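TA notes, week 10

Several of you asked for a full example with nothing omitted. So below is the full record: structure tokens for the whole chain, then the designed sequence directly under it. When grading your own attempts, check the secondary structure regions first.
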């Protein structure tokens, strides 16, 4: 389906492109897996530049992962405006942030990208993916139905990420080619169901749409377990964050390498 050698996909991770830079995406694809660019928080042209850079580094298949939120809170459409709203409506939070800057002797970060994610913004990112004729598109959050017909017209594989069986069923109804079922063990956007029961149930519920397993998979044993449950492959994120090609600071990579399962906790903030 993806024209790759091994059933391993690099999860498209955000953080302004540091999690999945073009170098890492190309390296995974060159090694026989499927590299996936994480495009959240990137401008449409930023997404385009990274797509073109991947193509400079490899001729293998790769994908792009975008966030397509179903609803957005009413707020300013610029980061500058959002910061002003925070100062006016939540001064105690802003004061706390400034206290941290002073405590750790940090310099405030300038606003590099003044556009806040919106439906119009997401649509502009989608247009870039279609214009660049990327082989694979993944909706890391939200409903990919809006892109399916256009993707079909150019032979693009569409992937939906699901944290529950019901989410997976909705993706099937939307007509996706592949569903990534990500358990609560995974980093990023997850639900409350663990990977093994989620994958086992989804494999039956959404057949014949193939399932890729995600969440807590970091080595060959995890891959084997996913395949045994009926998944056709795995979607791995954290394991690739420690790669030399990943753009995260070494101190973060060291924390991941040294961390035990009990050291991590689920949070809605980062």
């Amino acid at each position: 389906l993806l024209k790759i050698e091994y059933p391993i996909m690099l999860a498209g991770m955000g953080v302004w492109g540091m999690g999945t830079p073009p170098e890492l995406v190309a390296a995974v694809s060159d090694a026989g897996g499927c590299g996936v660019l994480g495009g959240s928080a990137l401008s449409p042209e930023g997404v385009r530049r990274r797509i073109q850079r991947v193509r400079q580094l490899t001729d293998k298949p790769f994908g792009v992962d975008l966030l397509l939120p179903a609803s957005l809170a009413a707020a300013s459409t610029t980061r500058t405006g959002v910061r002003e709203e925070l100062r006016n409506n939540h001064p105690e939070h802003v004061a706390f942030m400034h206290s941290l800057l002073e405590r750790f002797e940090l310099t405030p970060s300038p606003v590099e990208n003044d556009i806040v994610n919106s439906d119009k913004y997401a649509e502009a990112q989608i247009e870039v993916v279609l214009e660049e004729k990327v082989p694979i598109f993944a909706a890391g959050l939200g409903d990919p139905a809006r892109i399916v017909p256009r993707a079909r017209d150019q032979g693009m594989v569409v992937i939906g990420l699901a944290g529950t069986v019901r989410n997976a069923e909705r993706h099937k109804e939307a007509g996706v080619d592949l569903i990534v079922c990500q358990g609560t063990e995974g980093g990023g956007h997850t639900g409350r169901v663990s990977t093994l029961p989620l994958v086992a149930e989804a494999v039956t519920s959404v057949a014949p749409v193939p399932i890729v397993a995600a969440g807590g998979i970091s080595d060959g044993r995890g891959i084997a377990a996913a395949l045994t449950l009926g998944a056709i492959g795995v979607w791995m994120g954290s394991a690739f964050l420690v790669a030399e090609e990943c753009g995260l600071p070494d101190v973060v990579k060291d924390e991941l390498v040294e961390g035990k399962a009990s050291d991590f906790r689920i949070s809605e903030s980062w």
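Residues 105 and 194 are 40 Å apart (CA to CA). Use that as a sanity check on your answer.
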